[in-house]
Structure prediction request, 905 residues.
Amino acid sequence: MTRQTAGVLWLTGLLALAAVSLFVGVIDMAPGDLFADPEALRLLALSRFPRTAAVLITGASLAVAGTIMQMLVRNRFVEPMTAGTGQGAALGILIAVIVTPAAPLMAKMALASATALASTLGFLAMVRRLPPTQPLLVPLVGLVYGGIIGAGVTFVAYQYDLLQYIDIWMTGEFSGVLKGRYELLWIAALVAVLTYFAADQFAIAGLGRTASVSLGLNYGQVVLIGLVAISIVTALTVVTVGMIPFVGLVVPNIVSRRFGDNLRATLPLTALMGGALTLASDILGRLLRYPFEIPVGTVFGVLGALVFLWLLYSGPRHAK
Amino acid sequence: MIRIENVSFAHGAAPVLHDISLDIPRGGITALVGANGAGKSTLLSLIARLAPLQGGRIVVDDLEVGACRSDELARKLAILPQTADAAPRLTVRELVGFGRYPYHKGRPGRDDHAKVEAAIAAFELGALADRPLDTLSGGQRQRAQVAMTYAQDTDYVLLDEPLNNLDIAGSRALMQLLQHLAREHGRTIVVVLHDLNYASAYADHLVTMRAGRIAEAGHPTEVVTADMLRDTFGTEAGVHHVNGAPVVLV
Amino acid sequence: MPSDLSLTGAAPAPLRRLLPGQNARRLALLALLLAVSAAPYMTLGSRGNWGFVLPFRGAKLAALVLVGMAVSTSTVLFQTITRNRILTPSIMGFDALYVMILTGAVYLLGGHGVMRLPPTGIFVVNAGLLVLASLALFGTLLGRAGHDLMRMVLTGIIFGTLFRSLTSFLQRMIDPNEFAVIQVGSYARFTQIDTDLLAISAVVLLAAMAAAWAMRHRLDVIALGHDAAINLGEDPRRGQIQALVLIAVMVSVSTALVGPVAFLGLLVVSLARLITPTPYHGVLLPSAGLTAGIVLVGGQTLMERVLALSTPLPVIIDLAGGLVFLILLLKGLRR
Prediction:
């Protein structure tokens, strides 16, 4: 299967899923109702469309962020949500809620992005000191590092009695997405699209510092741009819908195994696949225990962990 | 005597040893040599029950390997495995002390302490006794390991390529130690060696292996010949004799 | 042959040894410290009737100390059989597996079905399943992936994530009314200990710890590695399996009592190795057990009664334990 046919197939699948997503929910609504019932149209605009869009944006931009992070860290087994970036974002927004509860949302977001960036830089600094002969150390350090920051967030939340927020940020779910509550995610979408213009630079950075410098790349600058993009996408996702683990890990791995690491060619496919898989998990979460919902983070936690184990044991095809 | 009868061994589908029968005499140093992958280390592991026997029988004096109690065999036979591993986090005295475990099972008596101190003295490790192994040189660490098998007080001592990480001074010192153990203390030493010249200089008995079979066995002067080098090692090398002992020109 | 898993378990610092007799003195000191931290736990801030307070707090104190000893003992055993100093059963997903099995039982049998079973029966079945599952999971890992420590650790962590995700998945699938039956949540709770289970738990834990104590000399030898252990007449495989069974039992009981404990084991065993540097389990096991008791009882007193912090102790332990893990990992590499 060529990349183009794969792209067409995933796009078709994604559109089909999106159509399903628009008509699955607690309130019954069939496509025919749209023309007959003005309530149906309102429901679509207020809830179903925002939710579908939020899921697609989240999945696609997380997959892109995961790809970039794997390039910059030069390791296949990392992703922002488990390696400290997501937990850093949660810490930032928590601090913002405590220190300046009255500040505008954008200011809080900026703070969350900044702490996400800081904790990602911390992770990168540690990774640089790990021996390249031990690639599995990198995700191990990342998981523990993320866990420590997560425990710090829990600690602060307990002290200020803000525990209810923790659940919101730590478990990704889309049931609360309504018109007016998710629009920040469009910034994440924009950032993900913008990274595409630097796709070649990220691909080269993935070859390592020496190769990058010898190809005339401003390595430090590319790394910084990449980290900023990852941090913004992660922070926006955590604050708006909560943490969704494994999307940024599983999707880039599948794409890279099949189609290699030429990001200019593969990033659109990565985004498509990220959006489609996240949407499929979300729909699954809505249907399994109807009318209750299972958070998409939980669904993806199960599926993603299984895929991760498969990646870990199926031998390094393209894996570094 | 170590009697090996019809021993075969395979790693998965790959055969390593083919129906080997061999008697290793009591006393002196027996050296096992052969090309890489000939099965020397595997044979040694089987004698020392580090790997389970798949076919055949190995009997050490009156103890049948695999059938007798493991701790009983531990008082009869000691093995020094290849030490590519990182050193255990022990001091020299602690390591040597473990040599007495087969006797006291964790509750050392006065006699055990005396034997440990005797081993430390015999191998001139007194100054190093409380040093951690990982701060020692390769030669010193090897000496501590041999001291442990000495404290284990077994009739048979097996060593798997003990010269691997040693320079010429360390190698000679170790071989002389083994010779001393064999001659003065009546221990039987079985050692896998890479270097034919060390084998012919120190061994009383030489066994060569080729592709999982025993090729030749006998005194080094009989075994080490240009023909043997061609057949067993696949290399054309001359053999000279210095003071009666064969020396391979490399 | 499984070779030494040098890289991480490796030396965090140059090997330290104490003078003869010093270890014994430090053990005595630890015991004293535990007694000292237990006194304020029993007495501080109580306003009620002593006849009620003392037995009530006494039961909780006993539970804390028991759990601490079980967690530290299981961690020591696990580190010995994997020959590694950064692993704990919790990091490898043992307690997450316990919670998952329990949740699965509620899902299959219904909350009331599970409630009707005798608690001892549930416990025995669950512990048995955990033993089987851990033997299947870690028994194969010990043999095969023994060479590749990182892969083994990562596998354990991901299994932990998988078990936790499946647990929360199953919890969502369960009728919210039956949800309450699963008391073992995602956090350890040292404040509300299920003292009904205390008597039976105490018996089981003491038996397991006695068995571990009886193994102490063999563990010393197994810690030397596969070949060295066989040379000294010990069967490392048998010892590993016996230790795994004990670990599974101890993790089951302590998880049933207080919930998952994450980094507690790593923290206290690392501390114990600093306090009493020794290769002998006869010293390390009591030292780690006493340290765990001090951390739990002293920590709980400090947090609850002295500083009046609202954060539960496990969160602090996770924070400190996670840091210890990272430090051990990074320091072990620098050698």
Notes: Residues 1-13 of chain C have pLDDT under 50 and may be disordered. The two ends of chain C are 24 Å apart (CA to CA). The CA atoms of residues 83 and 223 of chain C lie 6 Å apart.
